[in-house]
Predict the structure.
Amino acid sequence: MSPGGLQRLGALFQRYRILFVIYGVGAAVGLREFHLSRTTEPVDWGSDRWAEMTSVMEQVNPDDPDTDFLEGVQSIVQGDEGGFVTHFEEALESDVKHNEFLLRDYAQHLLDSGADWRQLNDAVNRWRENHPFSSEVLTLELGAGPRTQADISVLNRELLAVPWIGGVELEQYEASGRPTWRVHLTFRPPRPIDVREAVAAVSILSVPTEDRLRLSVTCRTLTDCRVAPRSNR
């Protein structure tokens, strides 16, 4: 580079040196976070590191919705469900969009606790609209799980017929000493989500085997479901 070019570059740096410093620090921090995300294990919710991180956030930025999220997680670890709900709802009042775990976990809580279907649908759609390509799942507990391979096949068929469901994974696990089933649902964006459709789909197992091709289930709420002849559409 010519001496004149070096002089112009020096003058430019002097004029905008504060911006250069800010961008330099930001880039360094970003690279460090990227490196750590690739080379370190995620922080476990019940660990001392998580508790320390929460404590720092409470002191540095107590009114931030992410602080409420961290405090909510701490409440879960401590077995305080009421505190968890309070902190999450306080965070959501700020119309937070970037924290997928907050949006997803609150939607899952509403489903698990049997909330009103309209409140649940609002929460799930808010989560998915802000994170449409996320691989996170919504988990639906089954009151009565499949007993045969035919039950599994019909369950998959009914669930995958729901427009917004992109994938299905059935899981059997032990709960209170007895085998229990749940299904993990992935999504097909940008379809609007009505969780009642998933509840109706899994309710097909309550229909006698010989009637499952002739009858289908529809749900007005998460608990008020009815059997009717299938449409010929």
